[in-house]
Design a protein that fits this description.
The complex is a heterodimer of chains A (about 250) and B (about 500).
Chain A: E1 10-21, E2 24-35, E3 39-43, H1 50-58, E4 65-70, E5 73-74, H2 80-85, E6 88-91, H3 103-109, H4 116-127, H5 129-133, H6 144-155, E7 162-166, H7 174-188, E8 192-196, H8 200-206, E9 209-214, E10 217-223, H9 224-227, H10 231-238
Parallel strand pairs in A: 3-8, 3-9, 6-7, 7-8
Antiparallel strand pairs in A: 1-2, 1-4, 4-5, 9-10
Chain B: H1 3-29, H2 31-62, H3 69-85, H4 88-104, H5 107-114, H6 121-143, H7 148-160, H8 176-179, H9 181-197, H10 212-231, H11 235-242, H12 245-272, H13 279-301, E1 316-320, H14 323-329, E2 331-336, E3 339-342, H15 343-365, H16 367-377, H17 379-384, H18 389-411, H19 421-436, H20 441-464, H21 470-486
Parallel strand pairs in B: 1-2
Antiparallel strand pairs in B: 2-3
The chains are: A alpha/beta (about 250), B mainly alpha (about 500).
Chain lengths: ~250, ~500
């Protein structure tokens, strides 16, 4: 488990960020590095600060201290739309798709340049065939799984260098989790991904690297292949909130 | 019962109740009175819609209740009335406003350079304040001895005399050689503000600037406009007054709407934007703003009521029997199913319907509409998609104010133009959006028609049964109470 300090390999480096929400000190020194072309997963208990880390990178909850470097540029303190336009796609938790918009409109809205959707439509609908069938339905008429697909698909409309994906498997039926995993694996061929995932099986199969966040601090990092062997670490920081790899046969 | 079945049932009951009410009114009032009152109701409803549409769009997206909306209605009426009757004031002041705007618009040009300066923290704090003070001094110098009241009076002269030759009312203005330094100084003042706003030395503001061509566009366009309007400052008024009256009225509508749009943008950027974190302050701020604007209008044009002359298309005595005949003769009244009705009011009804279609198309077909519908639910996520939500807020606020201003100029030819004229419409606008459902433009349309009808039939019954005329005003509130009891989220509102 050796981390190089050479930041040039990283598409994204989060350096020691502090984030407050109101008066609450949510992140107290989180550091995360994401190498180009890889999947890094943030692990940790509920409320540890994983989602806030993604939001801080995105500029939705700006950090008070620390640096966020994306593509060799400091982006902390920039407005969220500016950060997004640098090439970061955000898939929030709880399927925050737009309920009053149709599937097609949800996708259209994510265009940054005219024609973004046309260029990527084939790829998106190949990943999520359901969406093309449902394109005229409104967001609130979709099932939970379909909404989640749409939330991920939306991030694929523009050319993004980095995707921040928050709990893609949350509340999905096992068969859909499988489909989501396939989709994310395919995405990895073209983009870099920072993932938050509670489903340990999914996380361990997708990600090369992990960062454990506990109580607002990044406490552990390394290769996923090492972590799966380290039951102590898993139990210490992830406890009951994850399904241990041995506790369940693969879907 | 399932959700959609319930909806259908309510719909059927609603249609039945409406049909019953219409039938009862028709039988009671008789055909002539029914049609006349309905048309009056639609006229009122059309104006209510123009006020309520802006209110509901702004509230739906930004949760801002704009208590200055009635003042915007009033200002739209004044702007259009001034443009139509005697645009001396508008063209006299326009170069100054444009000059200042040219200076301020230098922000995107100077900001990328200024934020890279090496300044100590103390100077970073001090410099903008010093610049603002300097800008204020320069502005005072620029408008010193500028006879703004005199300019405003010229329009009053034109409004109170019924001269057939409007050019006779034009008063000579300051010669160009003496006027010229005013826009120059204001440009400098605007530039000082631009430098201050750019936060010199604030390195956190460094971001990749847009291409130079794009950044130059606004200042250059404004600069050219400033020069043009400085030169045609006097001749423009003449030109406008020599125009065909109908064309002039059309331009007055455009001018008032554009004025509303720009005023709305200015108010949002300078006053509302800093207060989004404190919604209650926005209520107080807009309320205060409405008083300030009203007083300002009273200073300029005195607390008097003016009657705007109707444009020629609606002014010739006589009754047309068909729409073609009206359009040809410009008759002041038209016969609709045997009822004589003023043509101008018919125009107001059409204006309301056209704007409803426009808003509908905007909301359902355009990208802006898509952003608004998405932003109503989750502005943060819209921002995370790479859309500048602050800018969208500005545009929507400006659009809402523009609709109110359009309502104002629409009302000017048949309502007295006076500083309080918007108050009643603001009140009815609020009631409209409560009935229709906050945030729903369809609700605003339906609510406006319901309220317009209630007012019209309230007046009719008050007259016929010799009741107090306030019964008409009370009727709208009674409807609001009934709707709130049965459907607290309004007719087309969504439960959250």
């Amino acid at each position: 488990m050796t981390e190089t300090t050479d930041t040039n390999n990283y598409l994204l480096s989060v350096e020691n960020i502090d984030t407050y929400i109101g008066q609450f000190h949510i992140l107290e020194g989180v550091s995360v590095n994401v190498a180009k072309g890889s999947i890094t997963v943030l692990l940790g208990r509920n409320g540890a600060g994983k989602t806030t880390t993604l939001k801080t990178i995105m500029g939705l909850t700006p950090p008070r201290n620390g640096k966020v470097i994306f593509d060799d540029q400091e982006i902390q303190g920039k407005r969220a739309f500016n950060i997004a336009n640098l090439g970061i796609g955000y898939v929030p938790e709880n399927r925050a798709i737009f309920r009053a918009l149709t599937v097609m409109e949800n996708l259209k809205l994510a265009e940054r340049k005219k024609g973004d959707l046309d260029r990527h439509a084939d790829f998106i609908f190949e990943l999520f065939p359901d969406l093309s069938r449902l394109s005229k339905l409104k967001g609130n008429q979709l099932s939970g799984g379909q909404q989640q697909m749409l939330a991920v698909a939306r991030a694929l409309v523009p050319d993004n260098k980095l995707l921040l994906i928050d709990e893609p498997s949350e509340g999905l039926a096992p068969i859909l989790i499988q489909q989501m995993m396939e989709a994310i694996r395919k995405l990895k061929e073209t983009t870099t991904i920072l993932l938050v995932e509670q489903n340990f099986i999914m996380a361990s199969q997708l990600a090369e690297r992990y960062v454990i966040i506990d109580d607002g601090k990044s406490v552990h990092r390394g290769l996923m292949s090492d972590l799966v062997l380290n039951q102590d670490l898993i139990h210490q920081y992830l406890g009951a909130s994850i399904q241990a790899p041995t506790s369940r046969s693969e879907a | 019962m399932s959700h959609s079945n319930k909806k259908i049932l309510y719909g059927v009951i609603g249609v039945f109740v409406i049909a019953a009410v219409i039938f009862a009114l028709y039988n009671y009032a008789g055909q002539e009175a029914f049609i006349r009152t309905t048309l009056s109701g639609l006229t009122l409803g059309s104006l209510f819609f123009l006020v309520a549409a802006g209110l509901t769009l702004i509230f739906g997206l930004m949760d801002v209740l704009n208590f200055a909306h009635g003042s915007m209605f009033m200002l739209g009426a004044y702007a259009g009335w001034q443009f139509y009757t005697n645009p001396t004031f508008i063209f006299g002041v326009l170069p100054l406003v444009l000059a200042f705007a040219t200076g301020v618009m230098l922000i995107p040009l100077v900001k990328p350079l200024l934020v890279r300066l090496n300044l100590s923290d103390a100077w970073q704090n001090r410099l903008p304040k010093l610049l603002y003070v300097a800008a204020l001094i320069v502005t005072v110098l620029a408008i010193m001895k500028f006879d703004i009241l005199g300019l405003a009076q010229t329009a009053m002269v034109a409004a109170t005399t019924t001269s057939s030759n409007p050019l006779a009312e034009l008063s000579p203005q300051e010669p160009l050689s003496r006027f010229l330094w005013r826009p120059l100084l204001l440009m400098i003042s605007g530039a000082l503000v631009a430098v201050g706003v750019s936060k010199p030395g604030d390195r956190t503001e460094i971001s990749a600037p847009e291409p130079l061509r794009k950044r130059l566009l606004f200042p250059i366009v404004l600069f050219v406009l400033t020069i043009v309007f400085t030169l045609i400052r006097e001749s423009a008024s003449e030109g406008v007054l020599l125009m065909d009256g109908n064309l002039r009225f059309l331009l007055a509508i455009v001018a008032a709407t554009l004025f509303g749009f720009l005023l709305g943008a200015l108010i949002e950027i300078t006053m509302i934007r800093p207060l989004y974190v404190r919604p209650f302050f926005i209520v107080l701020m807009t309320l205060g703003l409405s008083f300030v604007l009203r007083e300002l209008v009273q200073v300029l044009w005195d607390p008097l009521a003016y009657q705007m002359v109707r444009p020629p298309l609606f002014a010739q005595p006589g009754r047309a029997t068909t729409i073609a005949e009206w359009l040809m003769n410009g008759s002041s009244t038209i016969s609709i199913a045997g009822v004589t009705f003023p043509t101008y009011r018919l125009f107001v009804i059409v204006l309301g319907v056209v704007m409803f279609v426009f808003v509908t198309l905007l909301m359902t077909r355009s990208r802006l509409g898509m952003i608004i519908r998405a932003g109503v639910q989750d502005p943060q996520m819209v921002e995370a998609l790479g859309i500048n939500v602050k800018q969208v807020f500005t545009v929507v606020f400006a659009l809402g104010v523009a609709l109110a201003a359009l309502g104002g100029i629409g009302a000017a030819p048949f309502l007295p133009v006076q500083p309080m004229m918007g108050d009643q419409y603001q009140m009815q606008g609020f009631i409209t959006i409560v009935i229709g459902g906050m945030g729903s433009y369809v609700g605003a349309f339906v609510g406006a028609i319901v309220l317009g009808m209630a007012r019209a039939f309230g007046d009719y019954f008050a007259l016929k049964l010799q009741l107090s005329p306030t019964i008409a005003e009370a009727s709208t509130v009674i409807i609001m109470i009934i709707v709130l009891l049965l459907r607290p989220q309004g007719l087309f509102g969504k439960k959250d």
